[in-house]
Design goal:
Elements (H helix, E strand, L loop, with lengths): L18 H51 L30 H4 L2 E2 L2 E8 L6 E8 L9 E5 L5 E3 L8 H5 L2 E2 L3
Antiparallel strand pairs: 1-2, 2-3, 3-4, 4-5, 5-6
Length: 173
């Protein structure tokens, strides 16, 4: 009598993937990621810059409204004077004109400042938006003053004064 083995072995045609096939799939995924990730980062920086420009425009509108609402004070002396926490009661120290995130001075990878000067009443102001990390959260800096034209600093460096802002070219949008 011929003894049959208790366990049968599979034939040489097993299912599954070979190591080479898996390596090829991983290599293709890595190539796609290498192409997609830089594009994603550029898109995020472009979105941060667009948000910064919109925020500078919001600050301009808020400064003009503040000056109209509080003519004896003039323009707001700090960015936080334009904001306020919810529930907000308008006053010259918390005007409730911008959101608390923007009034805190940081939003979408940018640091914001706004300051009124001269007077009293404050007859001038300038506002800036500078990336928190140049070439990571944004590439360019932005500023504006009483004429409400958004200007751009292509290097992303800080803009130390209203005179420095005045010397920059307007944003072409």
């Amino acid at each position: 009598m011929v003894r049959q083995p208790i366990f049968k072995t599979k034939s040489s045609q097993q299912g599954g993937f070979s190591l080479i096939e898996l390596l090829i799939v991983v290599a293709i995924i890595l190539i796609i990621a290498a192409i997609a990730i830089p594009n994603l980062l550029r898109a995020k920086m472009a979105a941060n810059e667009a948000s910064a420009v919109a925020s500078i425009r919001t600050i301009n509108t808020a400064m003009i409204t503040y000056q109209s609402s509080y003519p004896t004070v003039g323009y707001a002396t700090t960015l936080s004077n334009l904001g306020g926490v919810t529930p907000c009661t308008p006053s010259s120290t918390t005007a409730c004109l911008i959101g608390s995130d923007l009034a805190s001075g940081m939003k979408s990878g940018y640091n914001f400042t706004a300051a009124g000067s001269g007077g009293p009443p404050a007859v001038q102001y300038y506002a800036t938006a500078v990336p928190t990390a140049v070439n990571q959260t944004g590439i360019r800096s932005f500023c504006s003053f009483e004429d409400a034209i958004v200007r751009v600093q292509p290097s992303g460096a800080g803009i130390p004064s209203e005179a420095a802002c005045e010397s920059l070219l307007p944003l072409s949008q």
